[in-house]
Amino acid sequence: MEQVVANGLYLGAQYALIALGLTLIFALMNVLNFAHGQMYVLGGFVTYEIYGQLRWPFVVALFASAITLAVLGGLIERLLFRTVIRRSVREESTMLLAAGIAYFLDAVILLLFGEKQRGVPKIVPGVLRAGDIIMPYDRIVVGGLAVLFIVGFILMMQYTRPGRAMRALAQDRIAAQLMGVPVEFYSLLGFALGAMLAGLVGGLLVTITGVNSGIGGPISLKAFLMVMIGGAGVVGGAIAGGFILGMLESVGLTVLHAYGDITYLVIFAALLIFLAIRPNGLMGKPWG
Amino acid sequence: MKRHMFSSRAALLGLVSALSLAGALMPAEAANKVLKIGFVGVTSGPAAAWGTSNVRSMQTLAAWWNGQGGVKIGDQTYDIDVVTFDDQKDPKRAIAGMEKMAQEGIHYVVGPNVDDGAAAVRPVAEKAGIIYFPYAFPKALYTKPASNAVLGMVANYQSAPSIYKYLKENKGVKTVAFVCANESDPISQRDGGVVAAKALGLNVVADKDTYENDTRDFTPVLTPIVKLKPDLLVLSGVAPANAPLLIRSARELGFEGIISTETAQDAKVLEEGAGELANGFISVGGASTPEIRSKTMEEFIDRYTKKFGEYNDESNTKVYALQYIVDTLKADPKAIDSVEEFKKAMDTFSAPNPYLKDSSATLHYVGTTSFGQKRQLAVPLVVNQYKDGKFETLFVANVD
Pick the residue with more confidence: B400 or B33? Predict the structure, then answer.
């Protein structure tokens, strides 16, 4: 059972980090970023090229993944989403745009990096064996870094000026604008930050799970699942959703394995019932 | 002005006439006819390596032949044009792909790569008069009344008994656990493997464990299976992208037994994804080994590597489909426009196998034992073991 809990906590940490960027963008701009998974994949490939191929230090690769995606996110917001939001009154327009970007990035990633599964050397060799728990050291490092990034993100949102501005924006965009918050700048910053988180987690997890050009869609789907559990647009909700999904997967795959692959069936059935009771998820309210 | 226009028109007319005359007088070797051969299969996503090795093999071979002046079929010389369609492992897209081939008048198509795609395209292929070469194992595709599908490789129900028998006799394997993706292809391969293992008297300790195909972390999936401590862990129908992740998770969880699969894998992907943890992993390889391959195969590998930057061992099998199509057409040129002629030719077809060192080896169709008719390409069954970035041959066998 200890192993199951350890697996669940590790999965939860990485899931929470994946969901954070998605929920941030939703909170700030009311945009469902269907391209979040593709941004994760791109971050993974940047780390693959720099750490796996050029053999530069992992920290440099991770930094490059974060910066690349932050720049890309900023450009996407400035050139695409801002224009569409300004010109269209229909919310579906941003969803269609996000879906279009997802397909576009899928195609670009496939062209640039090919179709094969790619992996990088382990960042830390060896496996921890403590009682009934078996956990490779690299997973412990990645899990720890994920928790560190989550804590850093929460502190930034809570105690810094941009963090407060983004929270105000998420709470009431018009009120924030009336109070003098430069909403366009913080929308750009928020989108860049959300994309950066996707790139960061992609770069982190390429060391464990590798990366291939086809996994963007499933990653986005899982991130949406976590956000739905926790409540869209709430940072605490995304974190809770990530850890709940990680634990459900770990426990389900162990307890239900004798019955075949019904873990996700059970999770989805439970989610349907849960959403019927709490349509806004666990913490379904905006920042504030 | 009018006069000027008239003289320009006259000059143009004269030029066209002269060009037409020159064209008529030019020798017939100016341009070969084009023979389109299709590919419908997966070239993106986790299973992309399967289809990509098909496409790249076909393109390498076609470029090689075209560079030599084309292939002579009957009285005519043809350049081979490979028309590709990525079905993204989606049966609906596979149908669309096969319809595209039909619209282009293509009669010979390589693929699809998976069971549901191959089954889905059957009505289109039969209606449109297309012979297709799936890398998928449902027996219904190859047994009567079906007659348009030709299995392009060795099926898992043909390779699994050989592998398990070898491991039982040589490695002392007594217990087996199976794990596969929750999809029709891998599940059917797992079920075939379970039957083969039980028939050999092996104790199957796990045969229900599955995972979602887009799983990225397999530790939770494998934790309960590793605790059963089987001698052999079979990754039934595992996609090349998932194999290193499964191997890595199993080894990190302390699994010390043998890991195998009946699908072809990519050594580079294994090396990057699992490193030395993949050492000892057994898979069905491409139909060639350094010991049995001819100079032609070596040149093919060389051309492929130069063209695409890296080689995939699976292409040792995938090179055969286009070779069989063209050589069968050479044996019966009428089959270019008639798949019924092609079907007749398959029963008696035999040609030298250019990819094997053994000069008596032939290209011929097999499958009578498994399907009751010759609907399978005869390719060597090569079982490999991965070690330090490359595959080493464990043993070689034949179908039928």
Answer: B33
pLDDT, one tens digit per residue, over B324-337 is 999 999 999 999 99
For chain B, the average pLDDT equals 89
pLDDT for residue A63 is more than 80 = yes
A214 chain-B contacts, CB cut-off 8 A? 44-46, 48, 241
CA angle B191, B197, B199 (to 5 degrees): 105
Task: Assign A61 a pLDDT band (cuts: 50, 70, 90).
Answer: very high
Largest CA distance in chain B: 97
How close is the nearest chain A Cα to the Cα of B269, in Å?
A: 6
DSSP class of residue A285 equals S
Report the Cα A11 to chain-centroid distance in Å: 13
Q: Which domains does chain B have, with CATH numbers?
A: 33-153+289-380 (3.40.50.2300), 156-263 (3.40.50.2300)
- CA B400 → CA A2, B302, B316, B369, distances in Å? 50, 31, 20, 6
B299 — phi, psi (to 5°)?
A: -70, -40
Domains and CATH numbers, chain A: 2-277 (1.10.3470)
Rounded to two decimals, the pTM is 0.76
List residues in chain A touching B: CB distance below 8 A: 3-4, 7-8, 10-11, 14, 52, 110, 115-122, 127, 129, 134, 136, 139, 205, 208-210, 212-215, 218-219, 249-250, 253-254, 257-261, 264
Query: Where does the pLDDT of residue B7 fall: very low under 50, low under 70, confident under 90, or very high at 90 and above?
Result: low
Q: How many residues does chain B have?
A: 400
> Cα torsion for B316, B322, B326, B329, to the nearest 10°?
120
Residues B372-378, mean pLDDT to the nearest whole number = 95
Residue A205 neighbours by CB under 8 Å, 6+ apart: A14, A40, A44, A142, A211, B216
Element holding A114 (H helix, E strand):
none
Residue B388 buriedness (CB in 10 A; 0-12 / 13-18 / 19+): exposed
- Give the whole-angstrom CA distance, residue B136 versus residue B119: 9
pLDDT, tens digit (0-9, with 9 covering 90-100), for B188-241: 889 989 999 999 999 999 988 888 877 888 888 888 899 899 999 999 989 888
Measured between beta carbons, which residues in chain B are less than 8 angstroms from residue A8? 220
Higher-confidence residue of B291 and A257: namely B291
